[in-house]
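Collaborator request log, item 7. Partner lab (contact: R.S.) asked for a structural prediction of Phenylacetate-CoA ligase to inform their binding assays.
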Amino acid sequence: MTSSHTIASGPVAGTTDQRPATRRYWDEARETCDPADRERRILERMQHQLRYVYEELPFYRRHYDRHGFRPDAVQSLADFTAKVPVITKKMLVEDQREHPPFGSYTKDFGAGGIARIHGSSGTSGTPTMYAVSRGDWDRAADVHAMAQWCAGVRPDDLVQIGFPFGLFFGGWGVLQGVERIGASVFPLGVTDSEKHIEMIRTLGSTVFSATPSYCIHLLSVAERMGVDLRNSSVRHVLVGGEPGGSLPGTRRIIEEGWGATVADAGSTSEMYPFQTSVGCEAGTGTHLITDEVYTEVVDRNDHNVAISVGERGAVIYTHLWRESQPMIRFAPGDETYLDDTPCVCGRTYPRMPEGVLGRLDDMLVIRGANIYPSAIETALRDIPELGPEFRIHVHTEGALDEIEVHAEVSAGTHEAWQAVDDDRRAEAQAALVGRAEAVLRQRLGIRIVFEPLTPGTLEPTTFKARRVIDARGVRW
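Returned to partner:
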């Protein structure tokens, strides 16, 4: 696969790139490129990829033929949105079942041509297998490095990773970027939470990376251990793997609790390199590296209909450079909105001001109102008496759907309640319930019953949060 255009070639595979720590950008020309010039390059790559997948990959040829689409129909970015049919995870799973092990949306790279094989967790059936060619794997390292540099990682850092190292791509992408930058890495992975706290203190780790839920969980663990993470060596926290890291309340809790800056990153395993969106140190949201993975936000009901910048809609991703299992207009089912105004950091990539807000199929319809779990989380994070864990319960009473939120109070709040008599404790609990229900009603527009819980009641979140229990028959 060749192209007349090259972006960020990067160093030789397996090497580090010891750029001066004082440099503001990893690749200044690319990151500060004039948006109009970048769009021209993006269109070139789109047209190249459309020809490639139609000519080389049977999955796409069948899909496009069914929709009456031909690659030469795309002469603009607007054409791309309006004319190219989307693909979904369900389609990929079915194709792999018919064409094992990697599906007909990749080509045979021959002996030694595949660098890494990863996959989904397979919680709903057979895992989806992802094969990354050597060329694609090498390129991804430089993209991850650029994203992590934007987040503040430098060659003199020690990065401690709290993502798992298995089928899931998560921790591996962090590892790739850190090694390309030339920083030290401690890939501890998923282990007991106390061990992470102990090793931060022992090694003096300066960057910590995990899901936002786990970073908040570690605040409670540290408090039980008598450790104040605000005084630790960690100065940057890199989060991903789930929505929330860019939500103002969640971000504030992590930043204040850890005494560190927070950068949110990531997308989906299908879209590896997944660190093609990353929060910058300016705190303005997550930059989208659109000349690597082109990102659209479109009408949630019709993915071929464009919407205005700033309007909430469905996320659509496209690989502009991957040869192995390229995703062209992949619809993961996520929701967000965009901002293309200039960022104070100087990068000209568009941004998701609050990151990925959540999944479209996570939306709960309660008494005619559209309720997103991320909106409930945002409201709860603004109530200082509450701890990190909460659950959303939905059930039916008579003909009406009802929603309740159960949240643990913080250890400090619980101790204060235990120090007073029963009457004063009851008053304090009632006051918290009233204030929480008022905040939830104000933010979401419907009545939501709130119940405070003792710390430790709920199972702690050690990887991706699963906080919605729908007794109507669906559980997230």
